[in-house]
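Data deposition worksheet. Section B asks for the primary sequence of the deposited chain exactly as it was used as input, without tags or linkers unless they were present during the calculation. Section C holds the resulting structure in token form. Section D is free text for depositor observations; keep each observation to a single sentence. Incomplete worksheets are returned to the depositor.
Section A, Depositor: J.P.
Section B:
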Amino acid sequence: MSAASQSRAMALQPGAELGVSLELTNKAAQVAILLTSSDYEFLGWTPRYLVPDLLKAISEKPSVAATVVRVNAADVPANRRVLVELTGTLPAGLQPMSAEEFQPLVTLQSTH
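Section C:
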């Protein structure tokens, strides 16, 4: 993140609404969800593991909203500095985080 983005993130206040945008050209993940300040300063991305469910929420009803909950001190790692609450509507019947990548790698047998 640029120095300007880091500075803007540290100036956020709890309750501030953030912009939620779709990034189709992300070099690391191909598709990503960007978060921006009210004055359109880039702040960062949502965690990658949330993107598939967020895309479904956006395609169903584009009403995903992001609100700042807390801003941690500058000595906290950048990816943990701003706690954001995401709200919106998931399609009927969709169980969040139920995709294959969230399933257990092995199933343990009960010893009872």
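Section D:
The CA atoms of residues 4 and 53 lie 30 Å apart.
The mean pLDDT is 88.
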